[in-house]
Hints:
Strand content: under 5%
Radius of gyration: 18 Å
Distance between the termini: 67 Å
Helix content: 55-70%
Structural class: mainly alpha
Oligomer: single chain
Largest sheet: none
Number of domains: 1
Order of helices and strands: HHHHH
Amino acid sequence: MRLPFRAASNRYMNAYAGVYAEGMYAELSRRYPKIEKQLDLLNDRQVISTTDPQYLTVEDIKQYAIYLRKVQKLKDSSISHDMSALSNLCVYISGNNCVNIARRQYPLLFPRKHRGDILPVIESPISIV
Length: 129
């Protein structure tokens, strides 16, 4: 197949049409072509082995994360969104869990969401009478 990533992302988007909220669907419709271009670039440079989500490896995901962080200089939130979208696609297409495995093997490459704005847990329940 000439464009395996595009075919996979089209299958995924068609399956979830009407399921995702309109904003989320539009966001993924924008994000998947961007990820495809980035993976094609890395594949052309022989940094990753394939662009097919079915056959992506943990090392491919590691190299993609390094590319996003060092070359693209993306913020943690953008990296996290890209990785989540890629993870959902890989799992949907073939059950390929490469992104989650890469997150466990290389935790420093992947951002963690820190919620500093959450209030502490209430110690005792408030009784409303």
